[in-house]
Structures are given as C-alpha cells and as structure tokens.
Amino acid sequence: MTSVPHPAIEVRELSIAIRDEQGNERLMVSDISFRIAAGETLALVGESGCGKSLTAMSLLHLLPQPQVRLHSGEIILAGQAVHRLGKKQFRKLRSHRIGVIFQDPMTALNPVQPIGKQIDEVLRLHRPELARRARRDRCLELLKDVGLPAPEARLIAYPHQLSGGMRQRVMIAMA
Ligand SMILES: Nc1ncnc2c1ncn2[C@@H]1O[C@H](COP(=O)(O)OP(=O)(O)OP(=O)(O)O)[C@@H](O)[C@H]1O
Ligand SMILES: [Mg+2]
Question: Is 166 exposed, middle or buried (0-12, 13-18, 19+ CB in 10 A)?
C-alpha cells in the first residue's frame, strides 16, 4: 500500500475578518480552501483588493492585527496546524519551512543598509553555524541563484541603487 503524503500546505474554510473605524467586523476572505503538494505551484488570481495578500499573510501569522484577524478555518503546514501554534513555535517553523517574498520590496528592504548586510542578517539568524566568511559565500551564491547580475559588486549596493526587479530578486534570495 502506498501512503498518501501530506500536502505541503492545506487551507480549510479560511475566513479573514476586517474591522472598520466603527468597530464593525466584516469578512474580507470567506470560506476558501486549497491544498498545495510539494513541488506544486498555486497562483491566486483576482482583482486588486480581493484578499490575495491577506490570504498569504494568514499562512505566516502576519495578518496586521488587530484590524485584521483570522476569523475561522484551519491552516495545516506539513501536517501541523499552524493557526494553533504560539508565536515562538511558529517562528521556528517559519525559518525552516515557510518564507515570504513581500509584494513591495521597497518597503520590505531596509533603505539605509546595503543588501549584502541585510541578507547576512537573515543568515546569522537562521544559519548560526556559519562563520562570517561562509555567510559571505552563501550570500553570493544566493544572489547568483536568483540571477542578480554582478552579485559581488551589488553586495554593497543600497536598495535604491537597484532596479525594481533586482530588489525583488534580493527579496527572493532572502526568503
Ligand atoms: N491593515 C489593513 N487594515 C484594514 N484593511 C486592510 C488591511 N490590509 C488590507 N486591507 C483590506 O483588505 C482587502 C484585501 O487586501 P489584500 O492586500 O489582501 O488585497 P490583494 O488581493 O492582495 O490586492 P492586490 O492585487 O492589489 O495586491 C482590501 O480591501 C484592503 O483594503
Ligand atoms: Mg496583494
């Protein structure tokens, strides 16, 4: 008998509520369900403001509380119910199993720090076993992987010195 593997991500009847200035709640995302297997890609398509980013943020515990909150539903990541995890437990999972490439890299990147330093910080946090030199090598490797032209020279570049597409690649490298 072959066992059916867990989907990498499963979302069951997810609803997300938004509170307006009067304090009234309404559902912005209502009852959506999907499964994504390892190696599969899922594209959420819809008009601007329909709730795609909120749906993605809910998977990462990144809903902008308290205006926006998970109303109901379940989010299962590699067999674990992430909506029931505490912040600390989830952070561990986030560094190893799930990452995010934000929609707007100009606000997600620190404008006053070279990109090499910003990637280095991620590595320092999530790959504590790497020494400084190894982190630099890894950083270059990541920038090459995402197709950033002339990565060596770009380590010391600030976000505003890159094109929009290059900034997005830096975000992908960090994720
Ligand atoms: N922090 C917030 N407070 C209140 N409302 C919010 C907040 N963030 C998003 N919204 C509202 O939730 C709705 C869904 O936003 P979301 O960012 O998920 O849209 P989207 O589908 O990703 O749109 P786009 O294609 O433009 O990126 C929008 O109507 C938006 O105004
Ligand atoms: Mg969006």
Answer: buried
Count of structural domains, the chain: 2
Residue range(s) defining the domain that contains residue 155: 105-174
pLDDT surpasses 90 at 93: no
CB-CB contact of 157 with 114 (8 Å): yes
Residue 104 CA to ligand 2 center (angstroms) comes to: 9
Protein residue closest via CA to atom 16 of ligand 1: 51
Are 123 and 49 in the same domain? no
Name the residue of 21, 54, 102 to mutate for ligand 1: max ligand atoms within 8 A of Cβ.
Answer: 54
Q: What confidence tens digit (pLDDT) does each residue in 10-62 have?
A: 999 999 999 988 989 999 999 999 999 988 999 999 998 899 999 999 998 88
Closest atom of ligand 1 to 46 CA is: 21
4 within a domain of the structure (yes/no): no
Tokens of 36: 């994504």
Planar angle of CA 29, 34, 40, nearest 5 degrees:
130
CATH number of 43's domain: 3.40.50.300
Q: Is residue 60 part of a domain?
A: yes
pLDDT digits (tens, 9 = 90+) for 119-156: 999 999 989 999 999 999 999 999 999 999 899 999 99
